[in-house]
Amino acid sequence: MEQPRKAVVVTGFGPFGEHTVNASWIAVQKGLPSPWGRKAGEGTGKFQAARCRRELEKLGLGDSVDLHVYEIPVEYQTVQRLIPALWEKHSPQLVVHVGVSGMATAVTLEKCGHNKGYKGLDNCRFCPGSHCCVEDGPESIDSIIDMDAVCERVTTLGLDVSVTISQDAGRYLCDFTYYTSLYQSHGRSAFVHVPPLGKPYNADQLGRALRAIIEEMLDLLEQSEGKINCCHEH
């Protein structure tokens, strides 16, 4: 019997501030098949879906994965609407959010998202009046994915990109998106920060690293499938 394909959602961010070209969205487009890359809310036809599955086999994610890629605007209110909608629409096995950090010099795996401290204005000159993601939500939520293990596994692959771990996604739209997704998914989300393009990695290097990270995350999730339901409850 053919096994049902597992949905995986990957997001990158649009331009903001000095990042007129957002390295996170470029990395997503380079690392994953472009036929699925679209603005949040856009549809995809059957022809594109079939083409995407062929590309996924080449990339190593396999025919068992339904991949959905979205570009997210740097807007708090859009994130609050979009992230729950993506989980409801796709019921994904995994959601991986990718953002750019001007301070990063390595590809960084974020362990957790934070609920409070959001005071920076978004592209609409808006920030939440409460400065938090979820009223009365936990201070922070950890991903169920073992980021230390992912980091170790990707490092052993010998890619020409350094990978590291962080517990502070920055209290801006990256952290806000991550917490919102972790809260929605009971921890079944991940966040990857990439440096700006050329500082020091080019788009192809970031794309390869991102693809390898997602592959390792999926492998770890499959290995721990029997434990996931009891790992995180809120």
Polypeptide structure, described:
By secondary structure, this protein is α/β, with parallel strands linked by helices. It has 7 helices and 9 strands, in the order βαβαβαββββαβαβαα. Helix 1 packs across helix 6 (203-223) and helix 4 (147-156) packs across helix 6 (203-223). The model is unreliable at 34-38, 41-58 and 228-234 (pLDDT under 50). The radius of gyration is 17 Å and the shape is globular. Strand 2 (38-39), helix 2 and strand 3 (65-72) form a beta-alpha-beta unit. The strands form 2 sheets. A 7-stranded mixed β-sheet has the order 2-3-1-4-9-5-8, sandwiched between helices. It is 37% helix and 19% strand. The active site is at 110, 174.
Task: Give a brief description.
This protein is 37% helix and 19% strand. It contains 7 helices and 9 strands, in the order βαβαβαββββαβαβαα. The chain has a 7-stranded mixed β-sheet, sandwiched between helices.
N-to-C span: 35 Å
- Taken in chain order, the helices and strands follow as EHEHEHEEEEHEHEHH
Question: What is the SS-derived class?
Answer: alpha/beta
Q: Largest beta sheet: what is the strand line-up?
A: 2-3-1-4-9-5-8
Largest sheet: 7 strands, mixed
* Low-pLDDT windows of residues: 34-38, 41-58, 228-234
Count of DSSP-assigned helices: 7
Whole-angstrom Rg:
17 Å
Number of strands: 9
Approximate shape: globular
- Name the average pLDDT: 85
SSE layout and pairing:
Blueprint: E1 6-13, H1 23-31, E2 38-39, H2 46-59, E3 65-72, H3 76-90, E4 94-100, E5 107-110, E6 112-114, E7 140-142, H4 147-156, E8 163-166, H5 173-185, E9 189-194, H6 203-223, H7 225-228
Parallel strand pairs: 1-3, 1-4, 2-3, 4-9, 5-8
Antiparallel strand pairs: 5-9, 6-7
Catalytic activity: Release of an N-terminal pyroglutamyl group from a polypeptide, the second amino acid generally not being Pro
Family: Belongs to the peptidase C15 family.
Protein name: Pyroglutamyl-peptidase I
